[in-house]
C-alpha cells in the first residue's frame, strides 16, 4: 500500500463516506469524480449506514501472501441499509454458519501491515449483528 493512496482513502475507510450525485441521486462508494449514469460532476457527501444484509459470499482458502495467517476467511457483498453495496471481509463468525440474508454490522479493524516498519492499514470488516 502506498502512503499517499492510503491517506487519500481515509474518509471512506474510517467514516464510510460515499458521495451522491445531485443530478440523478446515484450513490457511489468509494466516491467517484464523475457519475456513471448522467456524467454529472456535482456530488454531495453521504454517510453510509453501518448495518446491512449479506447478499453473497465466498470463502478464501488459498489467500494472497499478506493474508496467509488469516485463512480461511470469508469475503462478501453486503447491502447496507439505504441500498449501497460494499465488498468486505466477514469476521468473527463460524464460516459454516454464514447465510445469505443474515444481518451484519460494520466494525473498523486492522486490515494489514506493510512489513515490520510499514504502514498499519485499517479499514472496515463486517461481523454478525
What this model shows, in words?
The chain has a five-stranded antiparallel beta sheet, with no helix packed on it. It has a three-stranded antiparallel beta sheet with strand order 2-1-3. The model has no long low-confidence stretch (mean pLDDT 87). Strand 1 and strand 2 form a beta hairpin. The chain has two domains: 48 residues; 81 residues, OB fold (Dihydrolipoamide Acetyltransferase, E2P). By secondary structure, it is mostly beta strands. It is built from two helices and eight strands; from the N terminus they run H-H-E-E-E-E-E-E-E-E.
Give the SSE map:
Elements: H1 3-8, H2 10-15, E1 17-21, E2 27-28, E3 43-47, E4 51-60, E5 73-80, E6 85-90, E7 103-113, E8 120-128
Antiparallel strand pairs: 1-2, 1-3, 4-5, 4-7, 5-6, 7-8
Envelope shape: globular
Please provide the ordered H/E string of secondary-structure elements: HHEEEEEEEE
Q: Could you tell me the mean pLDDT?
A: 87
What's the total helix number?
A: 2
Instruction: Give me the Rg, rounded.
Output: 16 Å
CATH level 1 class label of the largest domain: Mainly Beta
Number of domains: 2
- What is the third-level CATH name, the topology of the largest domain? OB fold (Dihydrolipoamide Acetyltransferase, E2P)
Strand content: 35-45%
Question: What separation lies between the terminal Cα atoms?
Answer: 30 Å
Structural class: mainly beta
CATH architecture of the largest domain: Beta Barrel
Can you give the helix content as a percent range?
A: under 10%
Strands ordered across the widest β-sheet: 6-5-4-7-8
Give the beta-strand count: 8
Largest sheet: 5 strands, antiparallel
Amino acid at each position: 500500500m502506498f502512503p499517499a493512496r492510503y491517506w487519500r482513502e481515509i474518509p471512506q475507510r474510517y467514516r464510510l463516506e460515499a458521495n451522491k450525485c445531485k443530478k440523478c441521486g446515484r450513490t457511489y462508494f468509494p466516491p467517484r469524480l464523475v457519475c456513471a449514469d448522467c456524467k454529472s460532476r456535482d456530488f454531495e457527501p453521504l454517510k453510509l449506514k453501518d448495518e446491512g444484509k449479506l447478499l453473497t459470499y465466498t470463502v478464501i482458502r488459498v489467500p494472497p501472501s499478506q493474508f496467509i495467517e488469516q485463512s480461511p476467511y470469508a469475503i462478501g457483498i453486503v447491502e447496507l441499509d439505504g441500498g449501497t453495496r460494499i465488498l468486505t471481509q466477514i469476521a468473527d463468525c463460524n464460516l459454516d454458519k454464514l447465510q445469505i440474508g443474515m444481518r451484519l454490522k460494520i466494525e473498523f479493524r486492522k486490515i494489514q501491515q506493510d512489513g515490520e516498519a510499514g504502514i498499519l492499514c485499517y479499514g472496515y470488516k463486517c461481523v454478525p449483528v
